[in-house]
């Protein structure tokens, strides 16, 4: 039973990271293709948030405590 739960947990984590990466790619495309200043500001904000999330995930996996 524990093996199944562990496998499902890893699958969910991988699925979420893939979805967030797809969103990051979409916002990068929006950032470089748009001329609308509001969309540009929104894409910039979302890219910063997603990159911050990835930095948090990596430091969490490495066991580095937050400053």
How many helices?
2
Structural class: mainly alpha
Report the portion of residues in β strands.
under 5%
Largest sheet: none
By DSSP, the count of extended strands is: 0
Radius of gyration computed on alpha carbons: 16 Å
Percent of residues in helices = over 70%
The best one-word shape is elongated
Overall pLDDT metric:
88
What pattern of helices and strands is seen along the backbone? HH
Low-confidence stretches: none
The N- and C-terminal alpha carbons lie at a distance of: 38 Å
Provide keyphrases for this structure.
67 residues, mainly alpha, elongated
Description:
The chain is mostly helical. Helix content is 87%, strand content 0%. It has two helices and no strands. Helix 1 packs antiparallel against helix 2 (37-62). The longest helix has 32 residues, at 2-33. The chain is elongated. The chain starts with a helix and ends in a 5-residue tail after the last helix. The mean pLDDT is 88.
């Amino acid at each position: 039973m524990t093996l199944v739960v562990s496998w499902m947990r890893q699958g969910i984590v991988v699925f979420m990271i893939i979805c967030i990466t797809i969103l990051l790619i979409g916002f990068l495309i929006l950032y470089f293709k748009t001329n609308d200043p509001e969309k540009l500001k929104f894409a910039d904000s979302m890219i910063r948030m997603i990159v911050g999330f990835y930095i948090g995930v990596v430091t969490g996996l490495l066991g580095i405590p937050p400053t």
